């Protein structure tokens, strides 16, 4: 039998980190080699335990520094933490290019705004549908302990809708609002995003697309954090064979 891949989890005591630790421990081909939390030195933790792949579910303020530390330590990274921007992703891509020059086994970093299959499909279907509708808005609904809004998934969905609209030559959406702009949600790339925080929820997203006389609603619900685990484990298994930066789980799923 081939050797198990040694995995570290960053943010190990958090909601997603704890669920990921349990999923790694249950996987026959993976070994949980390190649990890393706030205040731990990432480089030392992963080096001392011979980690090959690290999963980051920490906090938006820490995730970029964690990923740079993992690259410096020669460890592949799977990242689910939110807070990434084009600029921070660009810095990681640059760091990877430098680190991989001359490396026999180049490093990979996979950042996914959402590891749930239903959410990945909502993003895909919304991008496919966007060109056919005058209006598109997003409602994301989460547990009230979430620190960031709008969600990373909603931001990614809005960017995909905006790109599809631009490709199709669509202009701004119709909106006669003259007062009360605060009630219209956040503007993400020209798409309105509404964030609900409600006790009892986990993670949910609805994309509303409208035309004269018709509406399309695309919705997904993550009722439990186990919904993210097949995607996380797939990413852990695939990232060593994807050198450089990959953004989005869709790239390792066979979505056609
Ligand atoms: N991509 C995806 O599929 C998903 C992404 N998320 C994202 O994952 C992140 C974590 O979410 P939760 O687990 O709900 O949050 P949480 O608050 O329960 O856990 C975060 C953990 O990170 C720890 N932490 C803080 N600073 C750290 C550092 N510098 N290094 C390592 N750990 C550190 C905290 O002490 C805490 O234990 C959020 O950004 C959330 O939006 C959440 C669910 C799914
Ligand atoms: O904080 C969460 O819970 C989630 N965060 C991610 C996001 O912001 O999109 C993914 C999922 O929505 C759960």
TrEMBL record:
Q: Which UniProt keywords apply?
A: Amino-acid biosynthesis, Cytoplasm, Diaminopimelate biosynthesis, Lysine biosynthesis, NAD, NADP, Oxidoreductase
Catalytic reaction equation(s): (S)-2,3,4,5-tetrahydrodipicolinate + NAD(+) + H2O = (2S,4S)-4-hydroxy-2,3,4,5-tetrahydrodipicolinate + NADH + H(+); (S)-2,3,4,5-tetrahydrodipicolinate + NADP(+) + H2O = (2S,4S)-4-hydroxy-2,3,4,5-tetrahydrodipicolinate + NADPH + H(+)
Q: Name one GO cellular component term.
A: cytosol
User: Which residue stretches, if any, does this entry annotate as coiled coil?
Assistant: none
The Dihydrodipicolinate reductase C-terminal domain extends over 119-253
Q: Where is the Dihydrodipicolinate reductase N-terminal domain?
A: 6-115
Enumerate the GO terms in the molecular function aspect.
4-hydroxy-tetrahydrodipicolinate reductase; NAD binding; NADP binding; oxidoreductase activity, acting on CH or CH2 groups, NAD or NADP as acceptor
Query: Which amino acid positions bind NADP(+), per UniProt?
Result: 38
Q: Which residues bind NAD(+)?
A: 11-16, 80-82, 112-115
> Catalytic center at which residues?
142 (proton donor/acceptor), 146 (proton donor)
Does the entry feature the keyword Metal-binding, yes or no?
no
Which EC number(s) are documented for this chain? 1.17.1.8
Its EC top class is: oxidoreductase
**Which GO biological-process labels does this protein carry?**
diaminopimelate biosynthetic process; lysine biosynthetic process via diaminopimelate
Which residues hold (S)-2,3,4,5-tetrahydrodipicolinate? Answer: 143, 152-153
What pathway does the UniProt record associate with this protein? Amino-acid biosynthesis; L-lysine biosynthesis via DAP pathway; (S)-tetrahydrodipicolinate from L-aspartate: step 4/4
| Record has Oxidoreductase as a keyword | yes
Location(s), subcellular: Cytoplasm
Similarity comment text for this entry: Belongs to the DapB family.
Question: HAMAP family recorded for this chain?
Answer: DapB
Q: How does it assemble?
A: Homotetramer.
State the function annotated in the UniProt record: Catalyzes the conversion of 4-hydroxy-tetrahydrodipicolinate (HTPA) to tetrahydrodipicolinate.
Recorded hits in PANTHER family, A to Z, give: 4-HYDROXY-TETRAHYDRODIPICOLINATE REDUCTASE 1, CHLOROPLASTIC-RELATED, DIHYDRODIPICOLINATE REDUCTASE
Name this polypeptide is given:
4-hydroxy-tetrahydrodipicolinate reductase
The organism named in the record is: Xylanimonas oleitrophica
Which lineage?
Answer: Bacteria, Bacillati, Actinomycetota, Actinomycetes, Micrococcales
- The gene name reads dapB
């Amino acid at each position: 039998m081939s050797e198990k891949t040694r995995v570290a989890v960053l943010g190990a005591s958090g909601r997603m980190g704890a669920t990921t630790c349990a999923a790694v421990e249950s996987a026959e081909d993976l070994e949980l080699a390190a649990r890393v939390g706030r205040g731990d030195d990432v480089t030392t933790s992963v080096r001392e335990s011979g980690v090959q792949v690290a999963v980051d579910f920490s906090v938006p303020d820490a995730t970029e520094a964690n990923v740079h530390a993992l690259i410096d330590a020669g460890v592949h990274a799977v990242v689910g933490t939110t807070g990434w921007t084009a600029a921070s992703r660009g810095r990681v891509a640059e760091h990877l290019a430098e680190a991989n020059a001359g490396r026999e086994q180049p490093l990979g970093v996979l950042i996914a705004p959402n590891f749930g299959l239903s959410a990945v499909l909502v993003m895909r279907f919304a991008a496919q549908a966007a060109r056919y509708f005058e209006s598109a808005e997003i409602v994301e609904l989460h547990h009230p302990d979430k620190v960031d809004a709008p969600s990373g998934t909603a931001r990614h969905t809005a960017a995909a809708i905006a790109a599809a609209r631009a490709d199709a030559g669509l202009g701004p959406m119709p909106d006669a609002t003259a007062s009360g702009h605060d009630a219209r949600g956040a503007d993400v790339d020209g798409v309105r995003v509404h964030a609900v925080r409600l006790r009892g929820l986990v993670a949910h997203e609805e994309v509303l697309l409208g035309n004269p006389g018709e509406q399309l609603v695309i919705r997904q619900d993550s009722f439990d954090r186990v919904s993210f685990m097949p995607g996380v484990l797939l990413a852990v298994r695939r990232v060593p064979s994807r050198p450089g930066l990959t953004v989005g789980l869709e790239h390792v799923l066979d979505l056609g």
